[in-house]
Write a structure and sequence with these properties.
Blueprint (H helix, E strand, L loop, with lengths): L1 H16 L4 H31 L3 H27 L8 H11 L8 H7 L1
Helix pairs in contact: 2-3
Length: about 120
């Protein structure tokens, strides 16, 4: 409860300060896309390496790649949720933020992500 109140206060403060405007959200999305491209490429490459050449080293690299991707997804979802994206006028941006905010299995802790793999 205290944590939720704390997060609410941070979001409210940032919203009031104008930092989390729809215009800034467009800029944030551009940066997100660049970073996501790299994060997903690295995880997919590790998975590909394991699937075409099954070794213990490649298995460990695949798990590590998925853990890093889950951490990236969690971090980006938290940043995305700082914006009040539900109120954006741009429907495409709303959809993009909704997809970023839905972190799926990345919501698991590291042990959970490893178990899923």
């Amino acid at each position: 409860m205290k944590a939720a109140l704390f997060v609410f206060c941070i979001v409210l403060t940032r919203s009031v300060s104008g930092q989390y405007t729809e215009e800034n959200a467009k800029k944030w999305l551009a940066t997100y896309n660049e970073n996501a491209e790299e994060a997903y490429f690295n995880a997919t490459s590790a998975s590909w390496d394991y699937n075409v050449h099954i070794t213990d080293e490649n298995a460990a690299a695949e798990v590590e790649g998925n853990v890093k991707l889950a951490e990236f997804d969690k971090s980006m979802a938290a940043e995305a949720n700082a914006f009040e994206w539900n109120t954006f006028e741009d429907e495409l941006m709303k959809r993009e933020f909704k997809m970023i905010a839905d972190i799926g299995y990345a919501s698991l802790d590291e042990a959970g992500v490893i178990e899923v793999d």
